[in-house]
Design goal:
There is one protein chain. This protein is mainly alpha-helical. The protein folds into two domains: 8-60; 74-155, no CATH class. The protein contains eight helices and three strands; from the N terminus they run ααααααββαβα. The protein has helices at 8-14, 20-31, 37-43, 49-60, 74-77, 82-87, 110-120, 132-155, and strands spanning 91-95, 99-104, 124-129.
């Protein structure tokens, strides 16, 4: 992960999304909390999830993925723990023998990424940035998919001779 010399606030200013005054105000708020700057700016209504995702993609040199247009195999996510997929918001999109591509909202979430890397080993993890709203919707769809799979299993009739 190649981090840019620019910080997220500078990137958002350069894109004319926020002003320097808004950045300084948000940075002051950040000193009083443990929130990421992007979260503070979003809570203030100054940026969208998409703008944050684009800025993080620029900052870290990580590709941005549009989950609405991406084909997602929900079955692939079942190969990983629900904790890492749902709780840590690391959603696997593609996998081959050597790599797995994982959508994340926050490339700075070292705990989440480390847990996913442990589960993916020996595959190399390639990160892509997704906007939070879209990733939350994907996780909601995945939870529904799991629920429906469980319901189908429960409705199956036992094989003859086994009861």
């Amino acid at each position: 992960m190649e981090k840019s010399t620019k910080r997220i606030g500078e990137i958002l200013i350069a894109k004319n999304i926020i002003t320097e005054a808004q950045l300084h105000d948000a940075l002051s708020d950040q000193k009083l909390s443990d929130k990421f700057l992007g979260v503070i700016l979003k809570d203030k209504g100054l940026v969208t999830d998409q703008e944050i995702a684009e800025a993080l993609s620029d900052q870290f040199g990580i590709p941005l993925v549009d989950l609405k247009s991406e084909h997602v195999d929900l079955e692939l996510a079942r190969k990983y723990s629900t904790s890492v997929v749902i709780d840590h918001k690391c959603f696997p999109l593609k996998q081959d023998d050597f790599t797995v591509t994982v959508a994340v909202v926050n490339p700075l979430n070292a705990v989440a990424i480390s847990k996913f890397e442990e589960e993916a080993y020996p595959r190399k993890v390639n990160l892509v940035v997704a906007n939070e709203t879209d990733l939350n919707q994907l996780i909601k769809n995945y939870r529904q998919y799991i629920s429906e799979s469980i319901q189908r299993l429960l409705k199956r009739k036992p094989l003859e001779g086994t009861q």
